[in-house]
Amino acid sequence: MEKWIGNHPTLSQKSLKVKYRQILQVDRWAVLGENERVLKVIEAELNKRGGKEIDGIVALTDTRIMFISRSENSSYNYSSITNIRIAEDGKDKHEWKLSFSAGGRLIVVDDISKNDDTDEFFFILNQKVQNPNRRIETTVTHDFSYFLHAGRLEEFRKQNVVITPFLLKRDNQGSNANGLRLLKEKHPNALFIVQGNFKKDKAEGDYIVVDDLVYIYKYDNNERFAELLYTWAIGAFNGVTVDYFALKTVVAIEGGELTFNSNGKEFADLLAEKGAFFTIQKRKWHQKILGFRSGKLWKKSVASVSYLLILFIGMAMIFGDEDPENKKIPSQEVAEANTEIKDDQSDNLAAEQKAKDEEAARLAAEKKEKEQEAARIAAEQKAKEEAAEEKAKEEEAARLAEQKAQEEAEAKAAAANVYYKNCDAVKAAGAAPIRTGDLGYSRKLDRDGDGIACEG
């Protein structure tokens, strides 16, 4: 099914796949050529003469436009298409209507939803009608496992391949994801790729790649390009100091600091595995307290004030002054108060349980309703498919009957046209003798009238 909607389809394309699964089975319908590529598929309605409308899909391939439905298929080469017109559907302002001329016929399809997939469809159609041989990369043909980075875009440009605007938009998954995808292509066997930087006078880079070497890259999402800034061999980390923080790991190497935003422990394990010797930064007990790790005075001051404030609030809650009158609560009042508390708790628990039961019943009812609706839709869909198949069978039977009748009529007509001038002609044709009812028999040839002509 990827051949029709690609490996990263939109929700509307997934819905189309579910709705038209049967007619998209290539092996069953054999609507595509052996090397024919699908560029885009959308749902539409074909308008036929006499006001008949047929639901189906409109597909653009690298050679033609096709309309495919459960009852019929039709296609037109791009070179035959003229007078393309795209207008808002008069029946629904949220839908498009497409019309064009092909082979002397006016083709009209409507009920085309307004969305990004449709915009891409119209873009491809215009490009292919302008130049049927033009190569186009779309959201269907592109493998989203690979990022459209600057190098790949340059390759497409040199090959005169047009990339649809929607593909560029959909391929952009954000700066972090794009950078990771690009570097995974550059380093397919990397142990890990994480966000981080190298700091000399200032922090530089966006990603650290740990492969056969250790690399620092700076990624520019606008240019879709990763610049290599630094490279180290594993041996360069002999004698380094590894400092673990709550949210990062800092490796102090000659000339600066390498900061891992994650996977710092894995990097230290790798160094140990490779036989590198390094030191893990040890801290005094007070340096393990949040706010005291860096050793900066202002951070210690803020942390100290915060901890003291928390301490004073806690002590006030525990040892705060209490009204002496409140301390002398009679035991009977205490018992009554406890009873009231227990009653309130029981009431609350009962109310909560009732609410839970009501919510469970509501959810069960909703689930049952959804299941019934799904079953109804499935039954309707099945009935429609069976009706369509039955109609197709009837049409095929009618066609075969009409063909048989036509063949019989042609045979009779052919028989009426067989004529022999005399018995010499019969014998020359190798048909002698001929009897009553045989092709070419006539009383003129049957001189003795016994029903057998040219028997001598």
Protein architecture, described:
The strands form 4 sheets. Strands 10, 11, 12, 13, 14, 15, 16, 17 and 18 form a 9-stranded mixed beta sheet that branches. The protein has 4 domains: 2-155, Roll (PH-domain like), CATH 2.30.29.30; 175-282, PH-domain like; 372-408; 418-456, no CATH class. The protein is built from 12 helices and 20 strands. The chain is of the alpha+beta class and 456 residues long. The mean pLDDT is 84. β6 and β7 (105-113) form a beta hairpin. The longest helix has 86 residues, at 331-416.
Tally of domains: 4
Class of the largest domain, according to the CATH hierarchy? Mainly Beta
Sheet having the most strands: 9 strands, mixed
CATH homologous superfamily placement of the largest domain: Pleckstrin-homology domain (PH domain)/Phosphotyrosine-binding domain (PTB)
Radius of gyration: 41 Å
Please name the CATH architecture of the largest domain.
Answer: Roll
Query: Tally of extended strands?
Result: 20
N- to C-terminal distance: 73 Å
Shape: elongated
Low-confidence stretches: none
Instruction: Report the β-strand fraction as a percent range.
Output: 15-25%
Name the helicity range: 40-55%
Mean pLDDT: 84
Give the CATH topology of the largest domain.
PH-domain like
Structural class call reads alpha+beta
Number of helices: 12
